[in-house]
Design goal:
- By secondary structure, the chain is of the alpha+beta class.
- Helices cover about 25% and strands about 25% of the residues.
- The protein contains twelve helices and 20 strands.
- Helix 1 runs antiparallel to helix 11, helix 2 packs parallel to helix 6 and helix 5 packs across helix 6.
- It is globular, with a radius of gyration of 21 Å.
Length: about 450
């Protein structure tokens, strides 16, 4: 089946207006054919139209690029995934001596190192990743090594970047350019904001109310510390070039081999379970999320910066990849509506709905009650009248900007003994999913939501 671009353009324009998102660029690769289009504006004040050449921030989708670069070193025998990090960074140290000696690149790719993101301020210079590694000598553990998946926003991939720098003898930005972007023929993909043509760049937007409409983000780009885990910028066509590598055993659209077929198999088939399987998927691979769509395996890589968002879904069984880049959101319901519209038209599998609450469950609510926190984030789970609720403490500056209270209380609706739905309290939110799990000591030891893990503290 072919893509009905005029119908999709019209539907996306309707959804952008409904959700208060200034623009979306969409790319579709299906049965060897590429379709691209963009709708909306790159900036709400200049009203510059978005095009398929508009460059968007990809956020954590960057992690897939960094993983590909690392797998090149694996192909060359310069790195082994299960060798300790200390093999490549001899002075590597965190607070836990065992973790210091045993953590591997595979742990970092899986997000199972358990190391807290306590890297201080490493600055914006070329030695930023070296400094991050130096700064974590006292970083504590959120969880024991290999015990649970817990998303590392910046630190885990910064350590991988430092391994790349040491083994390749050049800065991470140069590694990405010379190992990936140039060989693939990508001229619009960059790893640092100073490399981007500002005349082509989308501006990020946040939204406080649909009545007020989208506001220009107060933060133009993420700090350089986020580079290997979040600072790649690109276009839909060039993101789909990365998808082509994953769909075609390591080959780029221009015929260049980027990694071996064995490395692609390792990236997709080496997996660890995710405590909350519903928001994205039940497993995490090497730089990729593994989704189960009605029994079909789909690979995902997503990203968000302060006002821009990226979504990529790769469907190997139907030789299909979809990418959407936006300068507003994020809203999971927006992505679901757009992608399901496309997937339905293509006659492929669609994104499954979230599960429904199980009203027959009889839970001992006292096993879940408690405080779960990490620096900057605090959740409190309480029971009242036979129901669980979760209270989130918002960062005061975030609460002030968004004009929201600094404490928000949500209802938790059980799906199973460890999984819960968290309905929204605001029309700008979507239903979220939460896992409360690991009852080794009688009560839940961890809360996992939006891929992040938070240990019980009280």
């Amino acid at each position: 089946m072919r893509v009905d671009e005029p119908r999709l353009r019209a539907r996306v324009a309707e959804l952008l207006a409904e959700y208060g998102i200034p623009s979306a660029a969409i790319g579709i690769f299906h049965d060897g054919e590429l379709t691209e289009f963009a709708v909306g504006v790159t900036h709400v004040e200049t009203r510059e139209p978005a095009t398929t050449d508009t460059v968007y921030q990809c956020g954590s989708m960057t992690k897939t690029w960094t993983a590909l670069a690392l797998m090149q070193l694996v192909d060359e025998g310069k790195v082994a995934l299960d060798e300790p990090v200390r093999t490549y960074l001899p002075g590597f140290t965190v607070a836990d001596p065992e973790v210091s000696a045993k953590v591997t690149a595979r742990h970092l790719l899986y997000h199972t190192s358990g190391i807290e993101e306590a890297y201080g301020d490493p600055g914006e210079d070329d030695d930023v990743y070296e400094r991050m590694v130096e700064n974590i000598a006292d970083a504590p553990q959120v969880s024991p090594l290999g015990h649970t998946h817990g998303y590392s926003v910046a630190l885990g991939y910064a350590i991988l970047a430092r391994i790349l720098e040491v083994r390749d003898g050049r800065p991470w930005d140069d590694v990405m350019r010379e190992r990936l972007f140039d060989p693939m023929g990508l001229t619009s993909t960059h790893s640092w904001h100073k490399q981007v043509d500002v005349s082509r760049a989308a501006t990020g937007h946040l939204i406080r109310s649909l009545h007020e409409g989208p506001l220009v983000t107060p933060m133009d780009y993420l700090p350089r510390a986020f580079g290997p885990g979040g600072n790649v910028t690109s276009t839909t066509r060039e993101v789909l070039a990365m998808a082509h590598v994953l769909l075609n055993d390591g080959m780029a659209p221009n015929g260049k081999r980027i990694v071996s077929a064995d490395s692609i198999r390792e990236m997709t088939r080496s997996r660890v379970s995710v405590p909350d399987p519903y928001l994205f998927g039940p497993q995490w691979a090497l730089g990729l999320i593994v989704c189960d769509w009605h029994g079909e395996t789909v690979y995902a890589t997503d990203g968000s910066t302060i006002g821009q968002n990226a979504r990529l879904r790769i469907l190997p069984d139907s030789d299909t990849a979809l990418v959407m880049l936006t300068n507003g959101g994020p809203r999971e319901s927006f992505y679901r509506e757009v992608f399901n519209e496309i997937l339905t038209g293509l006659g492929t599998v669609t994104i499954p709905d979230l599960p429904v609450p199980d009203t027959t469950l009889s839970l001992d609510l006292s096993r879940y009650e408690g405080v779960y926190e990490r620096p900057g984030t605090r959740y409190e789970v309480t029971a009242e009248d036979g129901k669980l609720s979760l209270t989130l403490d918002l960062d005061p500056m975030q609460a002030e900007f968004l004009q929201r209270p600094d404490r928000i209380r949500y209802e938790l609706l059980p799906v199973s003994e460890t999984h819960f739905l968290m309905p929204p309290t605001d029309s700008l939110e979507d239903t979220q999913t939460v896992a409360l799990y690991d009852f080794t000591h009688g009560t839940a030891g961890y809360l996992h939501t939006n891929c992040r893990v938070h240990p019980r503290s009280g």
